[in-house]
Amino acid sequence: MIEQIRNQARKLLEDGDVDVVIGYAEGSDPCRTTPVFIRKAEDVDKLIYDPRCINSLPLYLNKRHEYTRKGWKKTAIIGKGCDIRAIVQLIAENQLKRDEIYILGVPCEGQVSHPEKWDGSLHDGNRATKCIGCDVMTPHETDFFPGDKPDVDRSNPYEVTSPKVANLMELELDKRFAFWRTDFDRCFKCYACREVCPHCSCNVCITDETTPSWIDPAAHKKGVFSWHLTRAMHLVGRCTGCGECTRACPMDIQVDLFNQRMKEVVQDSYSYKPGYSLEDKHPLITYQVDDREDFIK
Amino acid sequence: MKTATLNKSEIGKCIDLLVQSDLRVIAPRLIPRLDEDGTDSIDVLTFTEVESGDDHQVGEGLLPLNGVKEFLFAKHEPLFAYEKRGKKVEIIPVHHEYPQTVIIGVRPCDAASIASLESVFSNANAGFEDPFFTERRSRTTFITYSCTAPDASCFCTSVDLAPDSSKGSDLHLTEIGDGRLHVEVLTKAGEAVAKQLESLLEGEGDQAAREKSGAEVHEKLTRLRNSAPIMDWLMDTANFDDEMWQRLGEKCIGCGSCTFVCPTCHCFDIVDENKGSKGYRVKFWDSCQFDHFTLHASGHNPRDWQYKRYRNRFNCKFKIYPEKFETQGCVGCGRCIRACPVNLDITEYMAEVAHKAANPNAIKADPDFE
Amino acid sequence: MGKKIEIHDFEPKIMAFVCKWCTYSGADLAGTSRMDYSPNVRMVRLPCSGRIDPQFMIKAFEQGADGVFISGCHPGDCHYNEGNYYARRRNTTFRQLMDFNGIDIERIEFSWISAAEAIKWTEVIDAFTDKIRELGRHPQYNDDIVDPYAQFLVQKDQESA
């Protein structure tokens, strides 16, 4: 399978159709892979794909990461299903044009959640939570796919994968808040969760604004809560569930629980699943005249 | 130097004795998970305050995620409060608490990093002492614990340190087999703690066994780099524009994880947190990897590309600090390697520099990049 | 319409974000008609309810508000045609987020009040204030979060001149 991808990448580079191929290569130790930017056809053999490739590559297509300045007119990118959801969402939000990207889809059975859990193969003991119940094991939007693409029914509503979300909803309010207080004690506002997100693309993030200071940058409770609530709110209807924010957190805080809950809310209220349609606008920038309003006086 | 033997199983009792003497005791602990988290959950080991010896991971697990930096150099703290009354601004002092603290179970890499922080915050030669840091440092004792099982990301031996080094320690513990620990009392603060633990310490220890066990662990480190040529290579200004910085640093996303978990990184920012006419001036952790770190008021940013920011970090650790403060900037703990979401590896930079230093005719700059 | 306003031990602080074309005018009408209503509410006038950013509400709680009240034109009557529809969607999701975070969404009230509905304004505000008074001071956003460094202030024995 990877040979077909490599051949296609080689062809694209040799024909000058793309400026760069973004993919995965062997990491600095055997349990890890690393993103790689292939510019020359002779380097395509570095590309690999296996269950260690949990990185979400579309974040390099985000203008915050200098995408627009690097002069790549057309980019090829290796995408597994969840990554392609992120690309589709970026296109739906006009952050990218469809013809700027050449998507090399790959079939995915799941990814290993942490490098230290890799023991040579993917199994139930090390599969990432986000992979359970995935409906894009065969990706939905590709320009090239090795082999046949079977038809998959993706109309099922989004299912929250982390059991923690349901557990939290069963707790009482003050116990829920107490959980967040304890969990966020470790947060020191490094903003890794923001930087790995493919959708965080504001040129100046609200938390870096100092006049006025909306979100205190210091890591006291006020600053931490303010940041995480704002991040969750800014991703409502846009988060495509790659789980990178939790993976990137250096203190292992499950920051994507908010995002998972909001995905469920958006699904229930507006029947919208981010990342599946190139044209549909996300629910907070559209409206229906008869939207739900049972809480309004 | 006084030495003694301690039973590893009695560390819990040591903690109890220290807690009972009104000391604040900080030890590695596993964060208790509330309930089922899904398959993604892994145990989170951090340094936190402990109330009893029943719940600690001293000597177990490798490195707590947070390190000891936050207990000396606070994550966030107020410098003073102020209130504007008409045209006058009144400065109101704030009162910090500096309890006597013992941090137990510190690994040699974390202990060695204290000297690096001291060179900035407590530098009498440079004529400046940060009072917050100095107060905390003077009231903190470090009980260190030699490593027995370094992992694939550790590389302390590549930066002139060792998994059984006692640099920066007040009281050093090394496993010598049969569940016993060799205790070395190294400083006055260590003596004070040893006195508290008198009832649990016995004998003279076993220097030979300690050295043997230390040497055995040295062999276990697999990540080995030659750091000797790095500083000179970095001092040569022609290498500032070398193509390797762009090539290796291109995938960096500027998340700052490396700087926040690094035991020697200590950049900070100061802002005023206002509420009407009152507020606090607050100092908190910052990172050179943020895009606005070197952003000038004019809008110009000398480190405008991410690879330039990582270049700065590498220089800071391997050239600037050794040169300016004669202290090591990197202790080889490997936290940055574990934390980096895109597997940007400082030891790859080290290897590349060593390679370039040995092959000076390699390409200098890649004009096609920008 | 003189109503006796009682002062209680705990007087909640209510923060209201209202649209200027409908709700603010309605509140203004209540004022010019000399209607009494609970004085606990502090209003911020915005051009449209669609301008209300969830950030304002989070900030209001952080600055010590015990309750937040949002109001705009009725659906279909927005001065800018659509702003209130977006506000409705935004608030639907924001309420769920607050709830998931463990914050009592009884403390966030959303209503449609038009420029003629001065009576509705007084009734809704009175009811909300009474509800918050009963719920008490906001327990989650208590002093720990509102003033994170209060414990660092040196005790002052006397006020200096």
Tell me the structural class of chain C: alpha/beta
Outline the biggest β-sheet of chain B: 7 strands, mixed
Spatial ordering of strands, largest sheet of chain B: 1-11-10-9-6-2-3
Task: Give me the count of strands of chain C.
Answer: 4
Give the distance, in angstroms, between the N- and C-terminal Cα atoms of chain B: 58 Å
Oligomerization state: heterotrimer
Number of helices of chain C: 5
Query: Roughly what percent helix of chain B?
Result: 25-40%
At the fold tier of CATH, the topology name of chain C is Rossmann fold
Q: Uncertain spans of chain B, ≥5 residues at pLDDT below 50? A: 366-370
- Largest interface, C-beta closer than 8 angstroms, per-chain residues: A-B, 61 and 51 residues
Measured between the Cα atoms of the first and last residue of chain C, the distance is 45 Å
Low-confidence stretches of chain C: 156-161
Structural category of chain B is alpha+beta
Order of helices and strands of chain B: EHEEHEEEHEEHEEEHHHHHEEHHH
Key phrases:
heterotrimer, A: 297 residues, alpha/beta, 4-stranded mixed β-sheet, B: alpha+beta, 7-stranded mixed β-sheet, 4-stranded antiparallel β-sheet, 22% strand
List the helices and strands and how they pair.
The complex is a heterotrimer of chains A (about 300), B (about 375) and C (about 160).
Chain A lengths: L1 H13 L5 E7 L6 E6 L36 E5 L1 H12 L8 E5 L57 H8 L2 H11 L8 H4 L25 H14 L9 H5 L7 H15 L27
Parallel strand pairs in A: 1-3, 3-4
Antiparallel strand pairs in A: 1-2
Chain B lengths: L1 E6 L3 H10 L3 E7 L14 E6 L18 H4 L3 E10 L2 E6 L7 E6 L1 H14 E2 L4 E2 L1 H8 L1 E6 L25 E7 L2 E6 L2 H9 L10 H12 L11 H6 L7 H7 L7 H5 L6 E8 L2 E8 L20 H20 L9 H5 L6 H13 L12
Parallel strand pairs in B: 2-6, 6-9, 9-10
Antiparallel strand pairs in B: 1-11, 2-3, 4-5, 4-13, 7-8, 10-11, 12-13
Helix pairs in contact in B: 8-10
Chain C lengths: L13 E6 L3 H10 L8 E6 L7 H9 L4 E6 L10 H19 L6 E5 L5 H18 L7 H4 L15
Parallel strand pairs in C: 1-2, 1-3, 3-4
